[in-house]
Specification:
It is built from five helices and 13 strands. The protein is α+β, with helices and mostly antiparallel strands and 268 residues long. It folds into two domains: 160 residues, Quinone Oxidoreductase, Chain A, domain 1 (Alpha-Beta Complex); 93 residues, Rossmann fold (3-Layer(aba) Sandwich). The strands form three sheets. The protein has a five-stranded antiparallel β-sheet. The protein has a four-stranded antiparallel β-sheet with strand order 2-3-1-5. Strand 11, helix 5 and strand 12 form a beta-alpha-beta unit. The N and C termini lie far apart (58 Å).
Length: 268
Amino acid sequence: MKTFAICNSCMQNIASDNFFDEFTIDEHKLTVTLFEAPEPDFTSLFNSHSVVVKVKAFSCNYRDRALIHRFAEQCQKLSGNQKYFYSPIGSEFVGQIVKVGSEVNSFCIGDRVMSDVSYPFKVDGNFGGVITNFASQRFILFSEHQLIKVPTSMPDEIAAAFSLSAQTAYSMVRKANLKENDNVLITALTSNTSLAIVERLKFCDVNINVFGMSSKAPSLKEHIKGWGLKNIFLPPFSQKVHLKDSICSDEKFDVVFDPFIDLLKFRK
């Protein structure tokens, strides 16, 4: 089975279709390849509630960045004596179910699925969160409660990068319990989670006033109308900040969505 992975330089010898590349992230060199890996044998791990998914597309999000560096570091450490070391990457995917356990009722062979990353618990009470760090592996074993079906209207390229940001955004908005005429601020506006919140708030049940904050504020002004925002501000600590672009005392917010929990300081 063809698998995409972080690897060491020795893997160039067995790369499929000569796909082998090196690139730099955060000033660190990473090596990746597409190669023919042995199909995993899940026999000893498979149970009545197991499903096997054949991955059709995968993606990496912000949390994968640190993991990619970690995987790459380990592959390089183990590069001696022409040994092959690799690690699949990615925490989101879309795939097709190819095998189901005897007591699986939620899915059938052939169903398109993506990860259910609801947090802190899933609907059935199981612990929530990200379900894999190795989404680029072609076949993966899961429990049925870790997956949700993909609508037929959603193409693979969207489904493969949808679940984490969308489920996080919906959860944040639900917990905010927005009220009529609330002033809402979304920080880190161009992050995936913030953009998902922007889209979710377009369908809010009450009328609210939505503002954004980003270090890219001047270049984002053209999106204010399309994103349904009242205004976009520069962060108060930005070196580029001008009074007319900053969050002034004139604006008071009832709800702040800050995906990175590090951009605002509140004073009593």
